[in-house]
Amino acid sequence: MDGGMERGRDGGAAVPEVDWKVGVDIGGTFIDFCALETRSGRVASLKVLTTPDDPGAELMTGLTLLAEREGLDPRAVTRFVHGTTVGMNTVIQRKGAPLALLTNASFEDVIELARLRMPDTYSLFCSRPDQLVSRDMVFGIPARLRSDGTERQAPDRAAVADAVAAIRAKGALGVVVSFLHSWRDDAQESAVKEEVARLAPELFVFTSAEVWPVIREYERTTTAILNAYVHPRISGYLSALEERLAGRGVPARPLLTKSNGGVMNAAEGKRACVHMLLSGAASGVNGAAWLARQAGEPRILTLDIGGTSADFALIIDGQARFGVGEMIGEFPLHIPSVSVSSIGIGGGSIASVDGQGVLRVGPESAGSTPGPACYGRGGEWATVTDAMVVCGWLGHSQMAYGQLRMDADLARAAVGRLADRLGRSLEATAQAILDVAVSEMFAEVEKMAARAGVDVRDFALMPFGGGGPMLGVFLARELGMSRVVAPRWPGVVSALGGLVADLRGDFVRTLFADLDAGLMPVLREAFAAMGREGRDWLAAQGHSGAAELGIVADMRYAGQSYEIETPLRPDWLDGDDPGAIADAFHATHARLYDFDDPDGRIEIVNLRLSAIGNGPALHFPMAEEEASAASAERTVPIFTGGAVTPVGLYRRAELPAGARFQGPAIVAQEDTTFAIPAGTEARVDAHLNLHLTFAE
């Protein structure tokens, strides 16, 4: 045998002795790997520092380390799923392609007017963001489609030619075409796209209807702009990814995680770039939902803390919540996405003192380069990670699989400079940094819970990411939660999320009609058409199995300016009685807003369908629980509650199923460190999850 390969029984091509499935997720500081060898059940995980100047290089570094440390043979990788922040970072850093927008004449200000809302209504210093397409690159084309889909005026070809000439002169690389009512009929947009391609074949062109054909021209336009803005960088990145993997001998074609928690192939990703802008956050929630189902946990609040941000999501009955209107930087993304609330608090978030002498934490982050001061990579600012080191929670073992060694002296020097400005002790300043970080997260969770109409005290917290276990227990106690459930490898849950993800495509039809008996045939026809479209999409992704079709409607009472998502059952569309659909909407409205109007007129704005092709049925090893008292490796001093306290240090790898211990404690492992305060009961379950319960 050679390199983990053996000859087939018929003497044909070599087949792998092993079968590796690999999930990868790139964050702001680390790239995470979670690999499963399906025949033995062996799990390998890894973190590698990112290389912002050469995205993708860290991926090759990680594969090399996995080969050296875990014996992973690239030729035995049969599934490779990848999530990346390239698109998100492109928008935030404003490094996307220069674009032009073609829209209806007299509607050139569509993205400037937006929804006439200021980002912060109560701030005297609030300003609106600069648009991704500057005003001089917006061109009005005489053309008009009526709201019923009939054409009032065909697009003026001469105006298109003049616009293209100006676009070329101004150096744009791409064009977005977005006309009124194209959700009803996209013929005008398509005609203009063909004309632009004929006149300037070097320009790439996207229409709003092909990206996401929904009513409301602003949201449809901004979503199409986001897709075009990141297209060159994502397309180039994915092409390089395919070449690098092929060069390593990986036979699996890469799959990409999507904002909706599913995956798609790279060819689709190069065109539908907008669908992977929130892939990292969605993958984390997807991984947490899978872990929650495995552990039998029905209600989970997720806390994903990386180097830059803290992300929160709700998982109910093993399923993540979805929504539209998530923000990418300063711009709304109007496609279905896993509902995630984010705040600029992460392990690398920088602490500072403002002009009024108030301690602030974030949103600026030290990232991976130079990183927190304690990394010893040139960082000089005090960060949340440095505060954890000063308080004693970190620094007792190597981090990131031996790639980082905490330098406590550098952390103390960085926090000390803030302490001098505040006139407080070093340890008290570090504790204050942690308290501010937790309070910022507390406020964000409370807002998210209010929007969802839930009480987080009914949930268990699942912290993950490199920083989630550091601060998660403190946040849970502040929120009044009674339990924390922490997975075996918290630092790579996002990579796990890609590994276990299904193929998922989303499709939409805008109906904008009253819910009555006359609408039922229209609903059936739309559902059938989207079902065919969904099955065709799955086939194009290479899926040959059964398709699971999920359907929801965006509904509202007539006169309302917002819709709520109402899940439907396909059998409710049979016949001419819309009663079951109406009842579901009334019940959803009452749950969210504590009132409904049984006699109110209901409108269905959008019908949305998800086509899901199940991913591989992966099984991770389980152990048999045997109650035992865990033994601490040693005690270490921790500053907490205004005093120094000795606490036990435990190694996660040495905690078997059934092990129990009490806080205060530290649990160190390869990818993160758990900070467990006093008054906490800890237990390890058969899945090697760590369950923490607080005393009343």
Automatic annotation (TrEMBL):
Residues 21-196 form the Hydantoinase/oxoprolinase N-terminal domain. It holds the Pfam family Hydant_A_C. It comes from the Bacteria. Residues 220-504 form the Hydantoinase A/oxoprolinase domain. Residues 523-692 form the Acetophenone carboxylase-like C-terminal domain. This is Hydantoinase/oxoprolinase family protein. It comes from Azospirillum endophyticum. The lineage of its organism: Bacteria, Pseudomonadati, Pseudomonadota, Alphaproteobacteria, Rhodospirillales.
